[in-house]
Amino acid sequence: MSPMAAKHVPSVDDSGCVATQAAPHSPPRILVVEDEQDLRQLDAAALLEAGYQVDVAPDAAAAWAALQQKPYDLLCTNQFLPKTSGVKLLKKIKTAHLGLPVIMATGVLPHWEFTLHTWLQPVKRLLKPHSFEQLLRMVEEVLPRRANVHDLSTPRPPGLNLG
């Protein structure tokens, strides 16, 4: 199996966070913030299968800690999180000028919050319950042309050793 075709296998630490190891020519890194463990693991598995690097966090505090430790290309967050909300996490990210695109997943979108604070708009809104196809399609819209990072049909520079 070539290095580019290798699967990323998540590891779980004591806090319930999943992390992947970065590989050469790293695919986009996505942070998934979801308090429901099963949904968090399923979304992470779908994104890993699609070839992304994925870290997960069970709440906004763990997400903020992860954002301080490494750069991300995309944040997918639930709106309703323990002790805070996805909107408050989004405010913190925007106030810190991280320039991170955000997909907000929720059963009920806080339209009044987005109307009151127009600068707060997430890049995309994903209504729950959602399918993995909907999640992946939305991620591909936000991270265009980088979606299938393990697609071996992608043109390679001459002489690049894949094996």
Helix content: 25-40%
The main pleated sheet reads as: 5 strands, parallel
Report Rg. 16 Å
Shape: globular
Q: Count structural domains.
A: 1
Show unreliable segments. 1-15, 18-23, 146-163
Average pLDDT, rounded to a whole number, is 75
Percent of residues in β-strands: 15-25%
In the sheet with the most strands, the strands line up as 4-3-5-8-9
Got a strand count? 9
**How would you classify the quaternary structure?**
single chain
Order of helices and strands: EEEHEHEEEHEHEH
Kindly report the CATH topology: Rossmann fold
CATH architecture: 3-Layer(aba) Sandwich
How many angstroms does the end-to-end distance come to? 7 Å
- The CATH homologous superfamily is termed Response regulator
Structural commentary:
There is one protein chain. The chain has 163 residues and is α/β, with parallel strands linked by helices. Helix content is 31%, strand content 20%. The chain has helices at 37-49, 60-69, 86-95, 111-116, 132-142, and strands spanning 11-12, 18-19, 29-33, 53-57, 74-78, 80-81, 84-85, 102-106, 124-127. A five-stranded parallel β-sheet has the order 4-3-5-8-9, sandwiched between helices. The protein has a two-stranded antiparallel sheet with strand order 1-2. A hairpin with a 5-residue loop joins strand 1 (11-12) and strand 2. It is globular. Mean pLDDT is 75; it is low at 1-15, 18-23 and 146-163.
Give a summary of the structure in a few sentences.
Helix content is 31%, strand content 20%. It is an alpha/beta fold and 163 residues long. It has a single domain, classed as Response regulator (Rossmann fold), CATH 3.40.50.2300.
